[in-house]
Design a protein that fits this description.
alpha/beta; about 40% helix; binds NADPH dihydro-nicotinamide-adenine-dinucleotide phosphate; single chain
C-alpha cells in the first residue's frame, strides 16, 4: 500500500517539495505523495538524476545559498507556492574519530544536513505563513541518539542541530497554522545508506565501536528499514491526520533501543 488510505487521493490539490528525491528515502516520499494525488517538485545535485516519473525535477546543490534560491524560484514558478516541504537530502562520510574529520567535511556536513533546511525554510516559510497552513518535515537520523563512538560525529552533530532548529521553528510557526516535525530513520536500505555502512563497518571495527552500536546490528523488528517505512511516517506527519502534532521527532527505526 503506498497511500495512507488505500486508493485515496489524500494529498490531491497539495503542492509538495522533496529535496533529494532521485533515490532512496526521498524517491519513496516522492512516489507516495504522487500516488496520493500531490503535485511534486523534487531536487538532486546531480544532473544525471532520474526522479520518479510524474515529479518535476530541478537540479540544485542544497548545500549552497544559490541552490536554495534556485529551488525556491522553481517552487514559485512551477508550483505557484508550496504546502508540504520535506527536507530529505543529507548524508556524510564516516571517519575514524572526530579529529580525523577534515575541516571542510565538518562544514559540508553542517551545510547539507542542517543549514540547507534553514536556508530553504527561510525562503519558503513566508508564503506558508501568509496562507496560514502547511507542513514541514525535516529528515534527521536515529544516530543522534547514540553519538558515543560515532564514526560520523560531524553528521550526528549537524542532525542534532537540525532537530533543535526544527522544534524551535515549530513553536514559531504554530500560531500561523504551519506544522513542523522531524522524522529520524534508523538503518534503512538505500544507495547512500549502504555506501556509508560499508565504510562505517571498516572504520567502526578500527575504532572498537561496540557491536550493538555498529553498522551490522539488527533491530528488534528483525530487519533493516525500507524507504517506504520512512515515507509512511513522512506522509502521516504531512497529512491532516497529524493536524494536532507539531515540534515532534518521530523515530522510525524498527525499535532499536539506544544504549545508556
Ligand atoms: P541517498 O544517498 O540514497 O539519497 C540522497 C538523495 O539526496 C539523492 O537524491 C541525492 O542526489 C540527494 N543529495 C545528496 N546531496 C545533495 C546535495 N548536496 N544537494 C541536493 N541533493 C543532494 O540517501 P538516503 O535515502 O539514505 O537518505 C535520505 C535522508 O535520510 C538523509 O537526510 C539521511 O541523512 C537520512 N537518513 C538515512 C538513513 C539510512 O539508513 N539510509 C538513516 C538515517 C537517516 P544527488 O547525489 O544527485 O545529489
Amino acid at each position: 500500500m503506498t497511500t495512507l488510505e488505500n486508493g485515496s487521493l489524500e494529498f490531491k490539490g497539495k503542492r509538495a517539495l522533496v529535496t533529494g528525491g532521485s533515490r532512496g528515502i526521498g524517491a519513496a516520499v516522492v512516489r507516495q505523495l504522487l500516488d496520493a494525488g500531490a503535485e511534486v517538485l523534487t531536487t538532486a545535485s546531480s544532473t544525471a538524476s532520474t526522479p520518479p516519473e510524474g515529479a518535476t525535477f530541478v537540479q540544485a546543490d542544497v548545500r549552497t545559498k544559490a541552490g536554495a534560491e534556485t529551488i525556491a524560484a522553481a517552487v514559485r514558478e512551477q508550483l505557484g507556492g508550496v504546502d508540504i516541504v520535506v527536507h530529505n537530502a543529507g548524508g556524510a562520510r564516516p571517519h575514524e574519530g572526530s579529529s580525523a574529520i577534515p575541516d571542510e567535511e565538518w562544514q559540508d556536513a553542517l551545510d547539507l544536513n542542517y543549514l540547507a533546511s534553514v536556508r530553504l525554510d527561510s525562503l519558503l516559510v513566508p508564503g506558508m505563513r501568509e496562507r496560514g497552513e502547511g507542513a514541514i518535515v525535516h529528515i534527521s537520523s536515529a544516530a543522534v541518539l547514540t553519538p558515543e563512538f560515532s564514526p560520523f560525529l560531524h553528521y550526528v552533530a549537524a542532525k542534532a542541530a537540525l532537530e533543535s532548529y526544527s522544534r524551535g521553528l515549530a513553536a514559531e510557526l504554530a500560531p500561523f497554522g504551519v506544522r513542523v516535525n522531524a522524522v529520524s530513520p534508523g538503518r534503512v536500505t538505500t544507495p547512500g545508506g549502504e555506501a556509508t555502512r560499508e565504510r562505517w563497518a571498516e572504520v567502526a571495527a578500527r575504532m572498537g565501536v561496540p557491536p550493538e552500536l555498529g553498522a551490522g546490528a539488527t533491530t528488534p523488528l528483525g530487519r533493516d528499514g525500507r524507504p517506504d517505512d520512512i515515507a509512511n511516517a513522512v506522509l502521516f506527519l504531512a497529512s491532516g491526520r497529524a493536524s494536532w502534532l507539531t515540534g515532534r521527532n518521530l523515530i522510525v527505526d524498527g525499535g532499536e533501543f539506544p544504549m545508556g
